[in-house]
Amino acid sequence: MNSLLTAAFSLALVLPTLALAQRPAARPASARLLALQLPASAPAPPQTYRLAGHVISAKGDVQPGAILRLKGSSKMVTTDAAGSFALDVPVQTASTLVASYAGCDDVIIPLASPKGMLTIHLRASLAAGLNQTLRIGDFAPDFDLPTVDGKNFKLSEHRGHPVVLYFYPKDGSPGCTKEACAFRDQYKEFEAMGAEVIGISSDNEASHRAFAAKNGLTFPLLSDADGQLRKKYAVPRAVLGLLPGRVTYVLDDEGRVLYVFNSLNKAANHVSNAKAALSDAL
Questions:
Q1: What's the pTM value of the predicted model, to 2 decimals?
Q2: Containing structural domain, residue 170
Q3: Are the C-beta atoms of 200 and 221 separated by less than 8 Å?
Q4: Which of 35-39, 81-85, 195-199 is predicted least confidently?
Q5: Known catalytic residue: 176?
């Protein structure tokens, strides 16, 4: 009995000793102080900053549809209906902002350091003027118009490939039907060159829908109901100003004007000439 008590007492003394031996050694006070003094890792500096502002026309009005791009890069935006824009610009790289609008000289702004809000004033080009047809090399004004399927077509979203914009007087007229059917018949050839074909008139969506269905058109028709896009593209009226004009613009993959053809009577030539202009540019 005495031996059992002695063994139990010895075990009670050993167990706390083992528990103490298994505890991790306490960190020295100097190490804890050093850990507290080390600074937290700094956040990474921003790579871009937001440049914003608006564009004013030569007449002092806000200018929707102006194009702003960083020279030497693919960054590009267009001003909204209020003439405003916002663009993310690299912080470390010195850049040049170029503001462009048809009929105006380019405005070039160095961006060596971050700037706040910008007000960019356009100046009418002496070579063209705001009321002249777009020149070769001009950026085509941006626009956003409804299609017959209830969606919208925004030109700036179709960069990266050529676009053929053809303005025509009226759905169902003999010349416009001939032109539309010629584009339809040769549409695969335009597709093979990577180009989109877009027809534009002031007819409403219902008229476009019926015209497209009757003639089996495979490309979008856009409704410029109030004629504002015709004005923006300076499409002249024909026959003593009584009829809307017929003008075709071929745009390159950057949205610049590559070719312009203006003829009311030679409807089919709009198709062959546009195709030839694209073929020459490839």
A1: 0.60
A2: 144-281
A3: yes
A4: 35-39
A5: yes
